[in-house]
Amino acid sequence: MGRLDGKVAIITGAARGQGEAEARLFASEGARVVLGDVLDDAGQQVAAGIGDKAHYVHLDVSSEADWAAAVDAATAMGPLRVLVNNAAIIMPAAIEDTTLDDYMKVINVNQVGTFLGMKAVLGPMRMAGGGSIVNISSIDGLQSKNGLISYTASKSAIRGMTKTAAIEWGRFDIRVNSIHPGGVNTPMGNPTNDPRAEKEPYQFQAIPRIGEPVEIAHAALFLASDEASYVTGAELSVDGGWRAGQVTPGLPGTDFVVEYGYESA
Ligand SMILES: NC(=O)c1ccc[n+]([C@@H]2O[C@H](COP(=O)([O-])OP(=O)(O)OC[C@H]3O[C@@H](n4cnc5c(N)ncnc54)[C@H](O)[C@@H]3O)[C@@H](O)[C@H]2O)c1
Fold first, then answer.
1. How far, in Å, from the CA of 253 to the mean position of ligand 1?
2. Does the beta carbon of 69 lie inside 6 Å of ligand 1?
3. CA 250 to CA 260: how far, in whole Å?
4. Which of 55, 63, 217, 259 has the smallest C-beta neighbourhood within 10 Å, fewest atoms?
5. Which CATH superfamily hosts domain 8-241?
């Protein structure tokens, strides 16, 4: 028995990174998966590697026409029960260096893409008798960093829109939740694929390493499955403890050695 037996899922941004990991994991749990992306060669290769249960479509998430075609492809495979709005881009820049054009590029993919995706699956999910939408936000949708004005705006919007949709659609048995990954070892989270980038930036984090794509995929699997039947409007951090706080050298409870320290009373 697979945890997603009998369900059809659309996963956006599935040509690589977390979306690819979700497509592979969901298929291994019995789902039929439609992989959408703008990287057509890579997406087709991932789908071919998964086999008969997978189908690739060109899906620019900011295009309503592409969404209509992706939903048609999914419903041709069976009842559409799951959507993972995973596709995103990031364009780090200081506020004064962020042009309106660049700002809107990020908003159009991350925020508008998530809105269009939710809207596109509503009808088929109601016809199927319910479903689960998993919106991939970020820790930067809960807090921020310098240089991320457009990305944080889009990821905060995803957190908020998730709650609106959860409230509107709970009566149709459609659950809508957001996942907030910390640093993840993908082309977005580790663009230079440098092994040092897997540890050093995370040394003060509770789990002192970068996350792997499959660790986010497992959280998405839970929310997509019927095991999460009473979970909606929730925000699930999968961040190695980033948001819990930082290890503080000099205070007890850590093996970090520092030159300075807190004096005991
Ligand atoms: N990697 C991290 O550190 C991190 C941290 C927090 C949140 N996230 C979020 O996780 C999700 C997955 O990111 P990732 O780390 O796998 O990044 P990634 O860059 O490896 O993958 C993103 C995928 O989205 C696709 N994409 C980009 N624009 C698209 C569009 N218009 N339409 C369809 N697909 C498009 C890309 O081609 C790519 O395949 C994103 O929502 C990202 O914001 C990532």
1. 36
2. no
3. 7
4. 259
5. NAD(P)-binding Rossmann-like Domain (3.40.50.720)
Contact 236/219 with Cβ under 8 angstroms?
yes
How far out from the chain centre does Cα 57 lie?
A: 19
Q: 90, 184, 190, 205: which to mutate for ligand 1, most atoms within 8 A of CB? A: 184
The Å distance, Cα 233 to ligand 1 centre, comes to 22
Pocket mutation for ligand 1, best pick of 22, 186, 194, 237 (most atoms within 8 Å of C-beta): 186
53 φ/ψ angles, rounded to the nearest 5 degrees: -80, -5
Q: What pTM was computed for the model?
A: 0.97
Q: What is the pLDDT of residues 172-216, one digit of tens each?
A: 999 999 999 999 999 999 999 999 999 999 999 999 999 999 999
- CB-ligand 1 contact for 189 (6 Å cutoff): yes
The verdict on the CB of residue 83 being under 6 Å from ligand 1 is: no
Q: How many CA atoms lie within 13 A of 256 on its CB side?
A: 18
pLDDT at 261 over 60: no
- Could you report the per-residue pLDDT of 27-66, keeping only the tens digit for each? 999 999 999 999 999 999 999 999 999 999 999 999 999 9
The answer to whether 34 and 57 are in contact (CB under 8 A) is: yes
Amino acid of residue 225: S
C-alpha 254 – ligand 1 centre gap (Å): 34
C-beta neighbour count of 260 within 10 angstroms? 6
Ligand 1 centroid to residue 13 C-alpha, Å: 6
Torsion from C-alpha of 196, 201, 206, 207, nearest 10 degrees = -30
- Structure confidence by residue, pLDDT tens digits, 130-162: 999 999 999 999 999 999 999 999 999 999 999
